[in-house]
């Protein structure tokens, strides 16, 4: 005779069926965690563990971003659960990066927002990243070039230009995160954007955008019209230099 079903088997089965039918759209964060925990916890109700995680961290995202040592403090959360919780965002990041690289073209830099928010939003230190694009706006590479303290990253525009030219890129999308979670650009961010734009234009590259990534949203210099203003400034300066 087989073992009798555990008390939570029916509930677990209903959660799985709900996901297969509707996806996560109709799940609360706690239900999503509960379903995820069942994958590494056979024959055991995971409702209390999910509730404990939510009580401690407050949201699904916070749980998935929590350090393993903090997760281990929750009653009922063992090494297999922690592996599953850390694997999910890692796989999601890999999927989004592969999808970004496989696109026929990046028609709008904002298409990279989902990838940047997931991969840069949780970072605890400031990181400067570039997406290098060819003349058809296909992504050739996504690279982290600089990292810094919690409030400052040292970025050298000439190194960005050198990296882009070495990759055979025609266009560049720059991005950096604000560990504070607020994507509002600082005066230093605006000065950096200007330096990057002028350095790129000087060698025939196009800076399509500079994105400041917060925890939940990002700021696009292009969407806010600031790249257009830089283009006008650059063109005006060159007209003055070539005027008789």
TrEMBL record:
Q: Which domain of life is it from?
A: Bacteria
Q: Which InterPro entries match?
A: MPN, RadC_JAB, RuvA_2-like, UPF0758, UPF0758_CS, UPF0758_N
**Quick one: signal sequence residues?**
none
Q: Name one GO biological process term.
A: proteolysis
Q: Where does the MPN domain start and stop, copy by copy?
A: 105-227
- Keyword Zinc assigned: yes
Q: Cite the Pfam families for this sequence.
A: RadC, UPF0758_N
Record bears the keyword tRNA-binding: no
The alphabetical list of record keywords is: Hydrolase, Metal-binding, Metalloprotease, Protease, Zinc
A GO molecular function for this record?
metal ion binding
Provide the family line. Answer: Belongs to the UPF0758 family.
Supply the name of the protein: DNA repair protein RadC
Q: Which organism is it from?
A: Desulfoferula mesophila
């Amino acid at each position: 005779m087989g073992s009798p079903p555990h008390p939570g088997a029916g509930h677990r089965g209903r959660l799985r069926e709900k996901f297969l039918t509707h996806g996560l759209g109709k799940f609360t964060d706690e239900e999503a965690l509960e379903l995820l925990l069942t994958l590494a916890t056979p024959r055991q109700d995971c409702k209390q563990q999910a509730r404990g995680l939510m009580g401690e961290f407050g949201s699904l995202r916070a749980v998935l971003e929590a350090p393993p040592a903090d997760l281990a403090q929750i009653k009922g959360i063992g090494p297999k659960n922690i592996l599953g919780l850390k694997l999910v965002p890692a796989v999601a990041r890999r999927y989004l990066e592969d999808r970004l690289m496989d696109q026929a073209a990046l028609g709008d830099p904002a298409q990279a927002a989902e990838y940047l928010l997931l991969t840069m939003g949780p970072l605890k230190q400031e990181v400067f990243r570039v997406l290098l694009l060819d003349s058809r706006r296909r992504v050739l590479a996504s690279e982290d070039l600089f990292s810094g303290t919690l409030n400052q990253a040292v970025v050298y525009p000439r190194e960005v230009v050198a990296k882009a030219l070495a990759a055979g890129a025609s266009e560049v999308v720059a991005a950096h995160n604000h560990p504070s979670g607020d994507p509002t650009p600082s005066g230093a961010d605006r000065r950096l954007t200007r330096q990057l734009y002028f350095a790129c234009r000087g060698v025939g590259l196009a800076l399509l955008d500079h994105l400041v990534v917060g925890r939940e949203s990002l700021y696009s210099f292009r969407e806010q019209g600031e790249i257009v203003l830089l283009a006008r400034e650059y063109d005006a300066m060159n007209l003055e230099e070539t005027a008789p």
